[in-house]
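Ligand-bound model needed. nicotinamide-adenine-dinucleotide.
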Amino acid sequence: MRLKDRVAIITGAGNGMGAADALLFAKEGAKVVINDIRQENADEIAKQIQDAGGEAFVSTADVTKPEDVEAMVAETVDKWGKVDILVSNAGWDQLMPFLHTTNDFWDKIFNLNLIGHMNVIKAVLPGMMKNKYGKIVTIGSDAGRTGNPMEAPYSAAKGGVIAFTKTIAREFGRANITANCVCPGITEGTRLSKEMVEDIPDKEKAQKMKATVAKVTPMGRLATPEDVAGAVLFFASDDSRFVTGQVLSTSGGLCTP
Ligand SMILES: NC(=O)c1ccc[n+]([C@@H]2O[C@H](COP(=O)([O-])OP(=O)(O)OC[C@H]3O[C@@H](n4cnc5c(N)ncnc54)[C@H](O)[C@@H]3O)[C@@H](O)[C@H]2O)c1
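Prediction:
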């Protein structure tokens, strides 16, 4: 078990990739805080972990609200004594031509996809520094590395997440805290891919979009949340103990450095 007795907070863990991370981490022995603003989904993931004999509790903290996030970290320390691992995963986007976007939309995208990460990381760092141990994994996006049409504000925020993660790695390495960023490409079974591809009314168009992505992907298919979870586990475990400030794409070779 690679995470035995470790305490992990995973944001946005009620669905998609965060849920896959939570289930894998619990199998690897971690106690997991299932954070999500959608309580029903988070409860379901916590139940799956508990039914399998693992330990989990739900926090409905909104990562865009510093006071919520601080309360979640305090509750975790109160229950389990520490936070060893943070997977800062919660995120969202809506495809939109840049010229149709508004300042309100930019605020919404930046608040969740950049400031949300900063809130959670700021809240866990003091405890990690005190314990001289911390594994921080941010979930970026290949959009933040290469840019992506129809995702201008999101790409900008994710580019910010990458730069922020590298900075945390450099500033806190001496406290034995690592910070690394996993960058997924389009990943099936997530709310984002359902909203943007799988559930669009034009089924033929959706099939075509998926087939096109699979065709240009060297590994010939779209990712699943479980494909991404293995990379997150690597950065969350001591297998990556001397790896920090790194960015890893989980897009089946679509995006190479
Ligand atoms: N799905 C993709 O194709 C894809 C591609 C690249 C990057 N990403 C990134 O991967 C991460 C996970 O995305 P996903 O596709 O699994 O998403 P998802 O929508 O399936 O799950 C994200 C979860 O975050 C929760 N959430 C939203 N706002 C929150 C908030 N303020 N506080 C706490 N929880 C909140 C949602 O309720 C949801 O359950 C995100 O950072 C996303 O930007 C996704």
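The first strand starts at residue 7 and ends at 10.
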